[in-house]
Amino acid sequence: MKFGVVVFPGSNCDRDMIEALQNDLQQEVIQLWHKDKDLAMFSTDDCIVLPGGFSYGDYLRCGAIARFSPMMQSVIEFANKGGKVLGVCNGFQILCESGLLPGVLLRNSQQQFVCNNVFIKEAAADSCEALKIPVAHGEGRFFANDATLETMEMHRQVIYRYCDEKGNINAAANPNGAIHNIAGICNKERNVFGMMPHPERAVSNALGNVDGKHVFNHLFGIN
Q1: pLDDT greater than 90 at residue 127
Q2: Which of 9, 94, 178, 212 is the most buried (most CB within 10 A)?
Q3: Which residues form the catalytic set?
């Protein structure tokens, strides 16, 4: 399995993602520039990653300009053919702006940037252990209308929810006011994934936290 990591002007987590995938998870990684279009070296068994950061300076709305970049047109085509796509933080925002994922990411409810370790758990497994994963965002409050949320729940599109360290899902464990404590979602076809927490920052023994490996294993079967 190959991973392509897209770099936009303003990306600041691309090196983190490349380091995590290449050195900690021993995966083949190809860096992709936002002005390029060629994804011919990737099959639908591979994955394109949109990393965190502040693409195009977060002007207009977070991810709103990146959505129209040449590379994103190819990523959208790749996803529509069944290729895997992962968006983390700003990458999640770009996926929602592009229509590959439902909903929007709004300003945090406390109107402040949050940078902290939080806990998340797999939404489909009530008994699953809580994972400690860092967040760093100012616009991470997931929101969707009632009809969209009902459809998402029906198709089990919520993949992660914020919880406390014991796995309890409650308001106190929600770092940004996301509706239904939603931390990560996927599309109906389950090949496009987006999440605000940064699993790539939690895969190294040197950092004292490897809970992020569970995320990559859960989504792509690698650890």
Answers
A1: no
A2: 94
A3: 89, 198, 200
Q: Does residue 142 contact residue 105 with C-beta atoms inside 8 Å?
A: yes
Cα–Cα separations (whole angstroms), residue 177 to 121, 152, 166, 182: 17, 18, 19, 9
Residues in the chain: 223
- Using an 8 Å Cβ cutoff, are 73 and 38 in contact? no
87 with 191: CB under 8 angstroms? no
- DSSP-derived 3-state class of residue 55: helix
Q: Where are the beta strands (DSSP E) in the chain?
A: 2-7, 28-33, 47-50, 84-88, 104-106, 114-122, 131-137, 141-143, 158-163, 182-186, 192-195
Tokens 């992709």 appear where?
32
- The string of pLDDT tens digits covering residues 39-57 is 999 999 999 999 999 999 9
Q: Which residues contact 188 (CB under 8 A, 6 or more apart)?
A: 155, 157
Distance CA 199, CA 221 (A): 14
